């Protein structure tokens, strides 16, 4: 991830105040406001650079509004936003990558969002493994997502294909990367 892409992730997910920026209730900000506030805080970026970052983001971390005037992070927020995503039926199995050191706690308490707004789940177990690597020795957990959905838990699909849910009780968790 480039330096600018990391900075944008931080500002749009966690710390808009760092450049005196305000996100709306759904996490959007006007592109012009973002670029102006970045400039005021010594981070020069033009619209073309921004569009390149959005297009080249390996995980499609940023979403532009249809008219291109607004931008937000697709997921990963810790600030209080409601992305306004519809609830949808998830695939039968989703995956969550974590560090093996977290397992005892996860099986005792279930998966919780930590400092983010929601728990993040991947369709692809390889992606989940990469997420786990960020935290330590990676372990991939299987989540019985469709069963959870049938039991009344709400799931949303972020613009970049990551699935979000408020929590995953441990009874829906298992081990393994195969479908
Ligand atoms: C763990 C990245 C102990 C959880 C990724 C994880 C993702 C528990 C950590 C997105 C626990 C939170 C989010 C419990 C959960 N006891 N540990 N009861 N419940 N945990 O970074 O899912 O590259 O907040 O397993 O792709 O790792 O930044 O969440 O290890 O989509 O774009 O607590 O961020 O995207 O860690 O990652 P995080 P995450 P980017």
In short:
By secondary structure, this protein is of the alpha+beta class. The chain is built from 6 helices and 9 strands. The site of ligand HQG has 18 residues, from strand 4 and helix 4.
Structural class: alpha+beta
Number of β-strand runs: 9
Approximate shape: elongated
Percent helix? 25-40%
Ligand identities:
ligand HQG
Order of strands across the main sheet: 1-3-2
What would you report as the Rg, rounded to the nearest angstrom? 17 Å
Mean pLDDT: 96
| Estimated share of beta-strand residues | 15-25%
Cα end-to-end separation? 29 Å
Question: What does this 3D model show about the protein?
Answer:
The chain is of the alpha+beta class and 179 residues long. The protein is built from 6 helices and 9 strands; from the N terminus they run H-E-H-H-E-E-E-H-E-H-E-H-E-E-E. The protein has helices at 3-13, 31-40, 47-56, 103-109, 125-133, 145-150, and strands at residues 29-30, 62-64, 70-73, 93-99, 119-121, 138-144, 156-157, 163-165, 173-175. A hairpin with a 5-residue loop joins strand 2 and strand 3 (70-73). It is elongated and about 50 Å long. The model has no long low-confidence stretch (mean pLDDT 96). The chain binds ligand HQG.
